[in-house]
Design goal:
By secondary structure, the chain is of the alpha+beta class. The chain has helices spanning about 5, 15-20, 25-35, 40-60, 95-100, 155-175, 200-205, 210-215, 240-255, 280-300, 340-360, 360-365, 370-375, 395-405, 455-480, 485-500, 510-520, 530-535, 540-550, 555-605, 615-645, 650-680, 690-695; strands spanning about 65, 80, 85, 90-95, 100-105, 125, 135, 140-150, 185-200, 260-265, 270-275, 275-280, 300-305, 320-325, 390, 440, 445-450. The protein is built from 23 helices and 17 strands. It is globular, with a radius of gyration of 28 Å. Bound molecules: adenosine-5'-diphosphate and magnesium ion. Magnesium ion binds near residues 193, 320 and 447.
Length: about 700
Amino acid sequence: MGTVSEYFGSMVFDDRVMKATLSAKVYQSLKKTIDEGTQLDLGVANAVANAMKDWAVAHGATHYTHWFQPLTGVTAEKHDGFISPSPDGGVIMEFSGKELIKGEPDASSFPSGGLRATFEARGYTAWDPTSYAFIKGKTLCIPTAFCSYGGEALDKKTPLLRSMEALNRQAMRILKLFGNDSVKCVRTSVGPEQEYFLIDRALYEKRRDLRFTGRTLFGAKPPKGQEMDDHYFGVIKPRVEAYMQELNEELWKLGILAKTEHNEVAPAQHELAPIYSTTNIATDHNQLTMEIMQKVASRHGLVCLLHEKPFAGVNGSGKHNNWSIATDTGVNLLSPGDTPYENAQFLLFLCAVIKAVDEYQDLLRISVATAGNDHRLGANEAPPAVVSMFLGDELSAILDAIENDKPYSAAEKTQMKLGVDVLPKFNRDTTDRNRTSPFAFTGNKFEFRMLGSSNSIACANIMLNSAVAESLKSYADRLESAENFEEALHALIKKTIKDHKRVIFNGNGYDESWIKVATEERGLLNYRTTPDCMPHLLDKKNADMLISHGVFSEAELKSRCEIMLENYCKTVIIEANTMVDMARTEIAPAIEAYILELAKTAAAKKSLDLRPSCIYENGLVNKLSTLVECIATKTDELEKALVEIKSIGDIMEMANAIRDKLLVKMSELRLPCDEAETLTAKKYWPFPTYGDLLFSVN
Ligand code: ADP
Ligand code: MG
């Protein structure tokens, strides 16, 4: 295949290919569209489409697709061939500018949360030229946005692009005030670290819960779990290594900067991190990465589990969204910098993030809310459902000094004044590490750690970008009209610290006592579940902010709330159905079969007058019979709850009932099943156990 640098990006229609295949004029005008968002004229689009098609065909592609991210959370594609009949009976390969720019997939089967009346099935996909087209298999994939006939966004990319634009607008105002006239635009960058499990495919096939729901709904704790801490950063096993190698190759061909890989805390758990890139590209790449992780796994006889909590009692999988703001001139606005002037600007951007996280805690929590992630947040392995921020001792001390007009360091005894070069340099390696904070400053970026492993990172970044845009807007409004810029700046920073310091917490986020302090003393929000947080998407404060920055329309917000709740309900209902099914048709019959064997053994012993008391058999038969009766009762109760819940018409009411009743009934059924597993002979147990699954890959 050649060296990595030879094949890296070989399946991407990137800048190198554009330069080589487009005329200088077409290339310039496409570049302008990519960099500055200018409209593309049809002549240019035709030329680009033609070059794209020739390049794709030369690389074995026969089809093209508008690749998009509907609200299902996965990506969608509809393939069209390039072929077009020629008058002589043959075919030619064709692809027009119009086909490149706009597509019309039937939108009726994608969730729209009421946005698209069913009689209006049309939806449009529109090319996003800022994310490169690529070839997957035999198909040229064109990243696109997806919207309804009426123009409402039916996808995650559109609001993401809008939020990036909102942040750009407001950050540019601030930069102007600081005299930065050479900057043309500001973009956010993201590097998402992705956790996942790898298990053996043959074992996976034997578990209906994994196949239908992505997680185990039953399973007793294995004799060995993660308590030895021998897996984290441990030696990577040969089969996993082969997998990771092929995965890297596939990702590199697509221009995805997969960089680090290591074992995670739980057995069979691993992590992959790319080098960061612009947020919308990072989002596209993360979606592709998840898809390719699963594809490559199947070639290795493995299954890649991206569920947030595939195994109870074992760490679940999350995603860390490393986020920063940078100018097109290459300056990271969250980097403390070397000069006093940059320090003040850094402090203002830092404050903008602090204010944003405090004021929109609920939106950040909502952005990661799924049924799967509810099992993780606050379970001593992931940050709690309470959103707080870690800044580290040094930065916190500086903010404290500003707030109280105190000298920053006792040694210096100087009056803290903005613009004085007091900020220490934050070397990435010296910033203190806090792994338990939901939102941590790590030297020159923030790491938002509440995302679940299967979440699209779009939602988190939409909320983050918008909330920070809102802080910056309020600062710019104030500073633009200030008579004395320095004084107004100082006052703003001081006020932000005073008003929002409650969200800063440098201690252990997993600590029970923190939750009490956070909620009771500091008044921070603690939305433990999806139904708890989701309705707040429509709170006036949140809706006003998102609408005012043009990120969502009111109708789009309502539709998202509806779809998220629907997803939650559907997910848990499928899980409950699967439990009923497995308990009735697999677990109870297995226990009964083992009881029968025990009873036969007892009868044989009795008839031979050998130990006629049969203490072992009778004791076990008794215990298992009690358990199987309990399983029968609990299965009936779960089924009854299911029937009741499915009859609820209102989606919010349904979600609440699922949280309060269905999930409770599910846990109640699981208990006797897991206990029975520990008492039943292994050859009778109908599916692989946790021990089998977690230690299946060598
Ligand atoms: P960790 O110690 O958490 O593994 P790393 O330095 O390895 O930290 O970075 C984790 C992720 O953060 C990587 O994907 C990396 O590319 C990304 N990252 C680094 N710098 C930035 C930045 N300025 N903006 C966004 N992401 C970044
Ligand atoms: Mg990390």
